[in-house]
């Protein structure tokens, strides 16, 4: 590989990918640098790249300005509960569509996937009305219940992976007298741990970064999540951008930790979606 000569097309692809990578990293670096500046440095003309002096006090001030501790707990609690329930429901539905040949299962699976094409803006108002009639507005259950019980992407992901498992495993378990639930929990579930890990990471990141639905369903400060709490740094007439950037850096730390430690599972999860079922 080291002695292999690069073709002009390969060089062109690497250049395009490098430009794309830099364009995605620059805003993040700018956020970190801005979180260490004063308000005057933030709006200086011409703009200054490196903060001088470095204002480390922005981070403790950002944590003290708003109840970030409570918001962190709320985001982690909501994301964790949604992950656990979605892993169970998506894997069970994926197993049913992949291995249980009931009448009309292909049509139901296609119909299920068709819901992925419906924009969330279409279902937003009906979902709000449902949560209001159930008396769940202003509570975390209004965020947990809809997200935990339905995820078409997760069902598709689990169905693709489970369909690739050899059918001889189920046949052997059936001969040994195992029922369908026993086959699922004792045979199938241990074999799909890689896909479960990848899917769980996707769900956790999505719930942690969710802003729109908490904005619609939550109305009490003590129930706010981290993205919603960050919105409070924006004032009516002025915004303290250094504190806002410091809070943003603090909010994305869990996401960075998850991505750095679980890159393999994330890439594997993307690859699983391309497997034939």
From TrEMBL:
<feature type="transmembrane region" description="Helical">
    <location>
        <begin position="183"/>
        <end position="205"/>
    </location>
</feature>
<comment type="similarity">
    <text>Belongs to the binding-protein-dependent transport system permease family.</text>
</comment>
<protein>
    <submittedName>
        <fullName>Carbohydrate ABC transporter permease</fullName>
    </submittedName>
</protein>
<dbReference type="InterPro" id="IPR035906">
    <property type="entry name" value="MetI-like_sf"/>
</dbReference>
<feature type="transmembrane region" description="Helical">
    <location>
        <begin position="143"/>
        <end position="162"/>
    </location>
</feature>
<feature type="transmembrane region" description="Helical">
    <location>
        <begin position="241"/>
        <end position="262"/>
    </location>
</feature>
<keyword id="KW-0813">Transport</keyword>
<dbReference type="GO" id="GO:0005886">
    <property type="term" value="C:plasma membrane"/>
</dbReference>
<keyword id="KW-0472">Membrane</keyword>
<feature type="transmembrane region" description="Helical">
    <location>
        <begin position="109"/>
        <end position="131"/>
    </location>
</feature>
<dbReference type="InterPro" id="IPR000515">
    <property type="entry name" value="MetI-like"/>
</dbReference>
<keyword id="KW-1133">Transmembrane helix</keyword>
<feature type="domain" description="ABC transmembrane type-1">
    <location>
        <begin position="72"/>
        <end position="262"/>
    </location>
</feature>
<keyword id="KW-1003">Cell membrane</keyword>
<dbReference type="GO" id="GO:0055085">
    <property type="term" value="P:transmembrane transport"/>
</dbReference>
<feature type="transmembrane region" description="Helical">
    <location>
        <begin position="76"/>
        <end position="97"/>
    </location>
</feature>
<feature type="transmembrane region" description="Helical">
    <location>
        <begin position="12"/>
        <end position="33"/>
    </location>
</feature>
<dbReference type="Pfam" id="PF00528">
    <property type="entry name" value="BPD_transp_1"/>
</dbReference>
<keyword id="KW-0812">Transmembrane</keyword>
């Amino acid at each position: 590989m080291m002695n292999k000569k690069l073709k002009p097309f390969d060089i062109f692809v690497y250049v395009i990918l490098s430009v794309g990578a830099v364009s995605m990293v620059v805003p993040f670096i700018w956020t970190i640098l801005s979180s260490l500046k004063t308000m005057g440095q933030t709006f200086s003309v011409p703009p200054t790249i490196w903060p001088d002096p470095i204002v480390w006090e922005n981070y403790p001030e950002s944590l003290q300005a708003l109840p970030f501790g409570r918001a962190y707990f709320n985001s982690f609690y909501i994301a964790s509960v949604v992950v656990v329930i979605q892993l169970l429901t998506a894997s069970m539905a994926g197993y049913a569509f992949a291995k249980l040949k009931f009448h009309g299962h292909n049509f139901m699976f296609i119909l299920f996937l068709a819901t992925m094409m419906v924009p969330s803006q279409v279902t937003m108002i009906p979902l709000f009305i449902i949560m209001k009639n159930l008396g769940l507005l202003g509570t975390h259950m209004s965020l947990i219940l809809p997200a935990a019980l339905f995820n078409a992407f997760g069902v598709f992901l689990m169905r693709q992976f489970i369909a690739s498992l050899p059918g001889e495993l189920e046949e052997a378990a059936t001969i040994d007298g195992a029922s369908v639930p026993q086959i699922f929990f004792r045979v199938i579930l241990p074999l799909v741990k890689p896909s479960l890990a990848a899917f769980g990471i996707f769900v956790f990141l999505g719930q942690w970064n969710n802003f729109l639905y908490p904005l619609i369903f939550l109305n009490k400060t003590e129930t706010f999540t981290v993205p919603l709490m960050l919105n409070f740094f924006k004032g009516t007439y002025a915004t303290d951008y250094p504190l806002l950037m410091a809070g943003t850096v603090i909010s994305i730390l869990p996401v960075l930790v998850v991505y750095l430690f679980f890159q393999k599972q994330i890439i594997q999860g993307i690859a699983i979606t391309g497997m034939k079922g």
